[in-house]
Amino acid sequence: MLNRKLNKIKKNVKKIAAKSVKVGVPASAAPYQDGMSTAVVAAVHEHGSLTRNIPPRPFIRPGGEKTIAMLPKVIRQYSKELASGQMQADQFWGIVGTLGVGNIRGIWDDNNWAPLKHNPENRQPLLDTGHLKGSITYQVI
Fold first, then answer.
1. Residues of the chain predicted below pLDDT 70
2. pLDDT at site 74
3. Dihedral, CA atoms, 28, 24, 110, 33, nearest 10 degrees?
4. What is the pLDDT of residue 19?
5. Euclidean distance between CA atoms 2 and 18, whole angstroms
6. How distant, in Å, are the alpha carbons of 50, 115, 116, 117, 130 from that of 121?
7. Within a 13 Å sphere around the CA of 102, how many CA atoms are in the beta-carbon half?
8. CA-angle at 10, arms to 8 and 13, nearest 5°
9. Domain locations in the chain as residue ranges
10. Is there a contact between 92 and 13 (Cβ–Cβ < 8 Å)?
11. Quick one: which of 104, 130, 129, 109 has its CA closest to 24?
């Protein structure tokens, strides 16, 4: 009886370990109206661009780090459902993905980014349109 339960737990844990989640701005995200890739814009702002005089404005990495730090708590919260098979791997990783999206968008909202030097009106088009923020998503793989 105990061996059967342990084997079931082991089988369910393997299913969870066989999957993962990607969180960020996918290459398939809808481009800006001018055709610029949203994923490229995200990467430029995440890492900065010397040629475009854009300082690094990381939002994906800090949001991802926050999500990773939350994983032990999330695993504990759902451990019984995961071990018993009541929760499928896709469901678990979907929860983690949703947390990741929320954390990245939270970094985006709570930013203290300096305005761009070549922006005398102090406009914030990245923040004003919401296009990039709305493109942050997750995919269970």
1. 115-128
2. 96
3. -10
4. 96
5. 24
6. 21, 9, 10, 10, 19
7. 9
8. 110
9. 12-140
10. no
11. 104
* Distance (Å) of CA 66 to CA 15, 104, 123: 24, 9, 29
- Token digits of residue 130: 């919401």
Phi-psi group of 120: left, alpha or beta (phi > 0 → left; psi -120 to 50 → alpha; rest → beta): alpha
Q: What is the pTM of this model?
A: 0.87
- The CA angle 97-107-128, to the nearest 5 degrees, is 105
| Number of residues in the chain | 141
Q: Look up residue 2 and give its two tokens.
A: 């105990």
Interatomic CA distance for residues 21 and 92, integer angstroms: 10
Name 49's bridge partners.
54
Residue with tokens 């070549």: 118
